[in-house]
Amino acid sequence: MQTFHASTPDDYAAALAAHPRLLVDYYKDDCPGCKMLDMSLAKFAASADAEGLALLKVKMEVIGEDFFRGLNLRQTPTLSLFKDGSEAARLPGFQAPPQIAQAVATHFATADA
């Protein structure tokens, strides 16, 4: 799983357009749950379930609080799954590796790959 970082709304839009199977991690530096989700994503990334996916990291302190509000994000961390540029699922709060894998399996069926 490749990891990318969005520092502007244009970076974000470009990533959505470029990656048909994209996980987006919305996070903040001072968020304990975000640090835990980061560890979960690292474990998930090492699994076969992550094959063919891209991960986009979107940090609120960099891209801006107004951008987060515009997406109706209510909390960090939040993980979103995008399929062909459209949001397929939003998972607020901490997610364990099996929860991430289940969401990926549900929304990115292997027949799509």
Provide an overview of this structure.
- The protein is of the alpha/beta class and 113 residues long.
- It has helices spanning 9-18, 32-45, 60-63, 65-70, 97-107; strands at 2-6, 21-27, 54-59, 78-83, 86-92.
- Helix 2 packs across helix 5 (97-107).
- The longest helix is centred in the middle third of the chain and has 14 residues, at 32-45.
- The protein is globular, with a radius of gyration of 13 Å.
Strand pairing plus helix content: what structural class? alpha/beta
Rg estimate, integer Å: 13 Å
Order of helices and strands: EHEHEHHEEH
Distance between the termini: 14 Å
List keywords for this structure.
113 residues; globular; 5-stranded mixed beta sheet; alpha/beta
Q: What's the quick description here?
A:
40% of the residues lie in helices and 27% in strands.
Topology:
Layout: E1 2-6, H1 9-18, E2 21-27, H2 32-45, E3 54-59, H3 60-63, H4 65-70, E4 78-83, E5 86-92, H5 97-107
Parallel strand pairs: 1-3, 2-3
Antiparallel strand pairs: 2-4, 4-5
Helix pairs in contact: 2-5
